[in-house]
Design goal:
Layout (H helix, E strand, L loop, with lengths): L25 H4 L27 H10 L4 H7 L4 H9 L4 H14 L8 H8 L7 H8 L1 E3 L6 E3 L2
Helix pairs in contact: 2-5, 4-5
């Protein structure tokens, strides 16, 4: 899976409603995005504004696919409350949708411009069990198979 960037068509905004049902239609039509090179800055370096576009619903779905059973811990790291988790877990929906809804709630509670791949990675940086695939997707880096060194994906 590749990382995110802003070299793609503009994506539709999500409504940030907590309505139930299937995935929004734009999820099936939005192409995955790649994150641009960061000029040597690590994804955990803090800046006044986050580079790149806000994550689309399609991108949140891609991230949700990479999360495992640690998604509940991820929710807490992202500032969601136990009540949020209880509401999500009590819905009779597939596990994938629970992960996706958790990420949607995170996005909806943040101001525009503060829901980029870098922002999400910052929120998850202290999560010990963050899957490698999730980190790769958000940083846009792929580990070299022999050295383990990262290189940007373009």
């Amino acid at each position: 899976m590749e990382g995110f960037n802003n070299r793609s068509k503009p994506v539709k905004k999500s409504s940030c409603s907590s309505g139930q049902g299937s995935l929004p239609a734009e999820l099936s039509s939005s192409p995955p995005l790649k994150m641009p090179a960061s000029d040597g800055m690590l994804a955990t370096d803090y800046k006044a504004s986050s580079p790149g576009p806000d994550l689309s619903d399609k991108q949140l779905r891609d991230v949700a696919k990479t999360l495992g059973q640690e998604w509940e811990q991820a929710a807490i790291h992202l500032g969601l409350k136990n009540e949020d988790l209880d509401e999500i877990k009590n819905e009779e929906i597939a596990e994938f949708m629970r992960k996706y809804k958790m990420l949607q709630r995170w996005k909806c509670r943040r101001p525009p411009g503060k829901t980029t791949a870098q922002d999400l990675l910052r929120g998850l940086e202290d999560l010990e069990d963050l899957p490698v695939e999730t980190r790769r997707l958000l940083t846009g880096n792929v580990l070299h198979p022999h050295t383990g060194a990262g290189r940007g994906v373009f």
